[in-house]
Inverse folding.
């Protein structure tokens, strides 16, 4: 590793909290928006962006604002996902959900605020050229919007109480969860100005990672400890959701995860002569549930 990723992950919180703090017209919005950032979370998407930049030996400073913006969008999606109209959850990141603390209206607005303000960070990023900032805004809006996370979330809601095939479920995950996991890698290859071949291998890697992430989430919903995951377990079964575990059993889900890990590894191996994939392999190893 050429960069100290942990050190940069701490800076993500500083950047977001400082952007949301200060003298804004509503103290409540500042407080509610900052609450969910301060609640923690793994910062997986920023970590992924930094690991991908590290592969190209690009200074991580160049990805700080974009990684912060993606984390803000991710946090907004969790606040809205927990609302009574959506998943109606009362625990997230080990703390009461945003609407339990601030009420529904403020939680909706805090989510809207995190989404909207995220783009401020990117357009004002002086470490990047105007053209790169514009391209990053396009990539991230695309990942979060109607052909990305929002589209996937709507498909998910429409599938509730319906019989859906496993292929339909994978499509939902690909958009709802996967697009915001691909976004940091897409952003990093854009900042690094990667050649088309390297970029396409890394993007395919990130798509497999999105699926691995979802299988992991489904497994942890069954085997996880609330003290570790920070959210109530067993919620998929209670809501009668089709998951990798309900479709294939626990062992079957782990096998599927292993298959996707191998495919993701193959994409990294295809580019190992041109970039240093050490950190990206670490990402994979961290997220693959092997024998627990
Ligand atoms: C409501 C606009 C809107 C979108 C919802 C992604 C999503 C879309 C909702 C989250 C639902 C969910 C639990 C999906 C499973 C995978 C996932 C995204 C888990 C949470 O991400 P982590 O594990 O969370 O990175 P932390 O708290 O660590 O940041």
């Amino acid at each position: 590793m050429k960069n100290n990723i942990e050190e940069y992950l701490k800076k993500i919180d500083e950047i977001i909290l400082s952007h949301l703090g200060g003298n804004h017209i509503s103290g409540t919005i500042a407080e509610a928006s900052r609450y969910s950032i301060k609640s923690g979370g793994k910062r997986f998407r920023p970590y992924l962006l930094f690991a991908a930049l590290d592969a190209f030996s690009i200074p991580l400073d160049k990805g700080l604002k974009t990684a912060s913006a993606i984390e803000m969008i991710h946090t907004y999606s969790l606040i809205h996902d927990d609302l009574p109209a959506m998943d109606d959850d009362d625990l997230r990141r080990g703390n009461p959900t945003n609407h339990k603390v601030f009420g529904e209206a403020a939680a909706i607005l805090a989510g809207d605020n995190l989404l909207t303000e995220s783009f401020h960070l990117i357009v004002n990023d002086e470490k990047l050229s105007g053209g790169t900032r514009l391209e990053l805004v396009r990539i991230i809006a695309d990942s979060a919007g109607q052909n990305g996370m929002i589209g996937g979330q709507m498909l998910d809601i429409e599938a509730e109480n319906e019989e859906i095939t496993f292929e339909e479920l994978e499509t939902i995950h690909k958009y709802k969860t996967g697009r915001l996991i691909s976004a940091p890698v897409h952003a990093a290859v854009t900042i690094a100005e990667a050649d088309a071949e390297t970029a396409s291998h890394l993007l395919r890697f990130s798509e497999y990672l999105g699926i691995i992430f979802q299988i992991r989430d489904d497994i942890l919903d069954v085997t996880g400890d609330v003290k570790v995951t920070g959210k109530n377990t067993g919620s998929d079964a209670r809501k009668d959701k089709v998951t990798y575990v309900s479709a294939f059993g626990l062992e079957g889900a782990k096998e599927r995860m292993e298959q996707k890990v191998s495919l993701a590894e193959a994409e990294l191996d295809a580019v190992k002569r041109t970039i240093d994939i050490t950190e990206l392999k670490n990402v994979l190893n961290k997220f693959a549930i092997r024998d627990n």
Notes: Residues 5-286 form a domain with the Farnesyl Diphosphate Synthase fold (CATH 1.10.600.10). The first strand starts at residue 91 and ends at 92. Residues 196-223 form the longest helix (28 residues). Residues 41-42, 44, 74, 77-78, 80-81, 86, 93, 149-150, 153, 176-177, 214, 217 surround geranylgeranyl diphosphate (CB under 6 Å).
